[in-house]
Amino acid sequence: MTLFAFYGTFTSTQPGHRNLEPARLVERTRTAPRYRLYFVDAMWPALVPSDDGVAVECELYEADEQLLAHLADVEPAGWRRAPLELADGRLVEAFLGEPELAEGGDDVSRHGGWRAFCMWLAASRRQQLPDEVETERLLLRQWRDDDIEPLAEIYAQPEYVAFMRARTVEETREQIERFRGLWAKDGFAHWAAEERASGRLIGRIGLLRHHDWPLEPSPVEVGWTIHRDWTGRGLATEGGRASIEVWRELLPNDPRVLSITTPDNVRSRAVMRRLGLAERGSALWQDVEHVWYALERGEPYSSSSSSAAELMQ
Fold first, then answer.
1. What is the DSSP letter of 183?
2. In whole angstroms, what is the distance from residue 218 CA to residue 313 CA?
3. What is the strand order of the sheet 35-40 is part of?
4. Under CATH, which number does the domain 2-124 receive?
5. Average pLDDT, stretch 230-246?
6. Residue 216: helix, strand or coil by DSSP?
7. Domain with CATH 3.40.630.30 in the chain
8. Which of 35, 99, 128, 167 suits 184 as a labelling partner, its CA being 20 to 30 A distant?
9. Which 8-state DSSP code applies to residue 283?
10. Could you tell me the pTM of the whole model?
11. Backbone angles phi, psi at 275, to 5 degrees
12. Going along 41-161, which residue ranges are E strands?
């Protein structure tokens, strides 16, 4: 067994910790003040040796070589397995960043560790989004109690259950309460999607901040769920486009917007492509294999003719 230090997404309070399930936590400690912590590509933590370093929180694990070899294979380019000095002078191993990573990353060493930085990042990105957004055919609005049964009806449809688990009326009620809580905590969540012509609830569309996403801290995702009788009309694309416009104009501190689904959800993946999101990879999330798409700030996308301010009028 090898004594190995982890300092970022694999530590015990972070979403990627499941990757260390075969390893045993030995202790929580700090590095010697010989390193700086960087946030690279607005996704990855990198500990880089520095003459002007600080002590950074880390966790020590006993890990076998099979696990470490696997982790080395999935590490992005620019990280290497190398000795790491702890605060008490002991030498262990860790995945350290090459000096070049510091040039393109943000120095977040002042937070003293990845967990504190992630908490600060989520708070700094919080922005209250509009309660309502209108598009040509949709009213994206706050949730009402009379939305529970229509939404539960959607969750029981075979087209939904093919990719997501069904929800009872009570589970749907609980989810709507969670959405209301997220509006208070994060400043936004999915809107109830109402067809303007009929006044009928046809699904949910909008933005969510995923604090448990394993590949980066608290990203924003655009998503949608539409009643089967309203699919095939471009409404998911219309609502998704309006949501991206809100992200682009009102969430300037979020460098990208994601969209996440299961690999066999062909219809959702087609909407993602129509919106201009590009496939970036796969991830095991909430015990299910997912594919994820992303749009970086500044990249071209399928924009609406209306600004966020016009959509809120």
1. H
2. 29
3. 44-49, 35-40, 105-107
4. 3.10.490.10
5. 97
6. coil
7. 133-312
8. 167
9. E
10. 0.83
11. -80, -5
12. 44-49, 57-63, 79-85, 91-97, 105-107, 133-134, 138-141
